[in-house]
Design brief:
single chain; 78 residues; mainly alpha; 5 helices; globular
């Protein structure tokens, strides 16, 4: 079983991977259509560190996700 620290580390790797994939214009529409529910779940996101939140915010920006939705997830400090 994974410890909490290992789980957080794994989640950060997953977020970073999705963020990098979202930089590819051919992959963007596929990611937008098949966005994992985790990325929209505020209860999961609230436990992320600032770096992971920044990557997730970049991911949403790359996919052109609505800025109001990003604010609802408390990713943006604006």
């Amino acid at each position: 079983m994974l410890s909490m620290n290992q789980s957080q580390r794994l989640i950060k790797h997953v977020i970073r991977s999705y963020a990098r994939l979202s930089e590819n214009s051919r992959v963007k529409p596929i990611l937008k259509e098949n966005l994992p529910q985790f990325f929209r779940d505020p209860s999961c996101i609230k436990n992320l560190d600032e770096i992971a939140k920044k990557w997730l915010e970049n991911f949403f920006n790359n996919l052109e996700i609505d800025k109001d939705e990003i604010k609802e997830l408390n990713l943006s400090k604006k």
